[in-house]
Hints:
This protein is mostly helical. The chain has helices at 8-19, 24-38, 43-87, 95-102, 105-126, 136-142, 151-154.
Amino acid sequence: MEQGDKTTENRLLAAVTHFSIVVQGIGILLGVYLYVSQREKSRYVAFQALQAAIFQLINLVITIALWLLWGVLYGLSMIPLIMQAEANPDAAPPAVFWISMILMVVPLFYMIITGLYGLWGGLRAWQGKDFQYLLVGSWLEKRGFWKKETALEQV
């Protein structure tokens, strides 16, 4: 990679693609747009944008799946609640209801962790570091979208 590839503008573009994780769907589109528009101009921006888009897409799918799974569990927990309410309206909700309510934190916690990880990637990109997401970065690297500099190439 050329030294001129990490200009202030390029670092800003790379950081914005990672920071866009806070607006999931739009962040994916921004990453794809920056990848397409920058792949001939800046390998650094293109790689950061592509991996941010893929990371956000994967995590959007996982987040939707987690929320759907929780919704099904929550819906199923209503069956014993309704049955109990018919038999004994003054009784406390069954344990399965409370378990399903507590499990709501799983997708919420996942969203927070992946959001913070994306923001960390944006900070590292703004600093001009070669940030790679776990699994996604190495996967793209194996497919030739990015090649780390070696000591010989820097000379």
